[in-house]
Amino acid sequence: MSFGIDNLPYGVFSRRGESPRVGVRFEDRVLDLAAALHDEVFSAPSLNPFMARGRQAWHDTRVLIQNKLTDDRSVTEQHLIPLDQVTLHLPFEVADYVDFYCSIDHSSNIGKIFRPNSEPLTPNWRHLPIGYHGRSGTVVVSGTPVRRPHGQLRAGVFGPCERLDIEAELGFVVGVPSELGSPAGAFEDHVFGVTLLNDWSARDIQAWEYVPLGPFLGKSFATSISPWITPLEALPRVPGPAQDPEPLDYLRRRADWGLDIALEVSLNGEVVSRPPYASMYWTPDQMLAHMTVNGASLRTGDLFASGTISGPNREERGSLIELTWNGTDPIKLSSGETRGFLQDGDTVTIRATAGDLTLGEVSGTIR
Which of 59, 79, 89, 106 is catalytic? Predict the structure, then answer.
């Protein structure tokens, strides 16, 4: 899949002995933007200063990079650095982090597992995109080892998590701040791009703590993101799924912000799931509208995530708790091993494609 001229995701890289700075992925190399474009905003160790410039600057810079890589290749060639010569860093400074719960298939499955004697979806689920605030300080770049968390597992029991899980998600990165609530129609004026995200989850800690206020320590220990932020402009858009009942006015869609993105989840190198993002019930413009309708401001570097991406079929589920139905139906690997939840040493990698584009990958190993 292509990291070609129609893709050009942004990241932060460094070479040995040099400071981190902003680059763009092109094929199997990184374009050093500060050197190629003679713009000091790209000498910063994060994307935040560039993202704050706004939508027109994002578009103009993207066109400029595309032109230089096609029409001015002799000049840019000297600023293209092979990937094996660089270290990739967290691509932006995370301001606030919000995680949503936007897949009707995932939410239904979790409801059946956690509340087997109740209606799977809570009464508010079809009326608003449910979300919670996470911890921005524990967002880490792909490749960072993930330590198994400790916590209360049940009444009177403290220890290491016994049911460590993953959640395959898509993260949305805010570029332009706002002091007032932003309507859904302003989505593209605020959101810079997307990144693959794995919201690691301690299911036993979560199940014991989440009533009545929802996720806390079961989620806040680590969230991994890809080192690459794909510009919103590059992504193929599709209509979102029909919604019943019709959302309130502030949540009504003004444009097509469904995204045709196919994910792939691998456990120790073996594909175990292929979740489809296009099936998500709540679209990202609705997430942003709901997140800000009460007057909450946006900051450059805010990150909000889709929640687990799952489809209606077993092979499309984006978490192990769904794939193995709470660990009772383990995944059988080709090595002969089985997995209900993650063991120490396990590596999970999430990849995604959008048409002919690749969004790269996010990976982590349990320690």
Answer: 106
